[in-house]
Automatic annotation (TrEMBL):
Keywords: DNA recombination, DNA-binding, Transposable element, Transposition. GO terms for molecular function: DNA binding; transposase activity. It comes from the Bacteria. Residues 61-70 have a biased composition (Basic residues). GO terms for biological process: DNA transposition. Residues 49-74 are annotated as: Disordered. This is Mutator family transposase. It comes from Runella slithyformis (strain ATCC 29530 / DSM 19594 / LMG 11500 / NCIMB 11436 / LSU 4).
Amino acid sequence: MEKTEFEQMRDKALEQLMKGQSLTGKNGVFAPLLQQFLESALESEMNAHLNEQERESGNKRNGKGSKRLKTASGEIVLTTPEDRKSTFFPQIVKKRETVLADNLAPQIIGLYSKGMSFRDISDHIQQMYDVEISHATLSEITERVIPQVKEWQSRPLESLYTIVWLDAMHYKVRDGGRVVTRAVYNVLGVNRHGYKDLIGMYVSESEGANFWLSVLTDLKSRGVKDILIACTDNLIGFSEAILASFPHSEIQTCVIHQIRNSLKYVASKDQKTFMQDLKTVYQAPTKDKAELELDKLNDKWGVKYPVVIKSWQNNWHKLSTYFAYDEQIRRLIYTTNAVEGFHRQVRKITKTKGAFPNDMALLKLIYLAVENISRKWTSPLQNWALTAQQLHIKFGDRMRMDL
């Protein structure tokens, strides 16, 4: 008994599956189905177009044309209906469309989000689907992410963030005919339930009080009413800006950044001994003990390295905030390691890029990287139940507990 068309297709599909072959790639059993579906849809669109009004105006069918269309199922040749007045503009496969973009867009954007260049994406798509896609088409597809980036940047935020870290990454961007350095400032926050979220991403040519004020103003306009602890790497103007916008916030500047900056001005032969003495300051069990050790550090090294010691003394009020908390919270706030760890993950994706063509191209790729990274932020920070209680004891009603 002769097999039906469905049975033949079923058998071919099973055979390809058993051989590990793609059902949708070149020569895949489902490829003809896509062609039939598209041609049927085009015919339906033409029927809808040639309504009574069109026919009364003298318009009617005028034969058929053909076009090559690149899809995830390989390249197919479509038979396309045409009308006499050329007023038919199909929607499922638009005129002059040579790539079924929506069919391939998820794969293309997914590859782009992993830091692959257009050349590598084009090669990969050709190997997988036997489809050649130009760089212009790839650019157009990735440009579709831009509205998502803008929507994400302006999305509403929660009213309270318990801890906020702020740090910058630097990239090369083309500006006119020259290559300039851009700083991408990321604001990583932890909400009152212990979940991380990148609440802000900003590109700036320079930093300063005005820039930071605009960042904090943006966060407030998106719904942030309170920040308990703000952790920074002592960026110029940020502490002043955050206290102007959130006057009750506590500021903790990164101790590790302070150490790195200090060692730049300590002779290499003294660095090991200096660090041993410095550890007794920032690793002290209490603030009082730390201040005693800072005085000893001054007595021993103050004459030889007055600028270094003076820096610790002048910044002590912002460097020592973490002593008010127990060990669990201290580990979270005395450095900007949380946001620096996030930056390391982003750089794994962006490291293959040279100079970005513009600021939006830079933001676009970082946004896609954030999407991938944040998928792992599905649980609260470790031991958050204990941390939340400590914050509630410290900040009272500002840190509400769901009891």
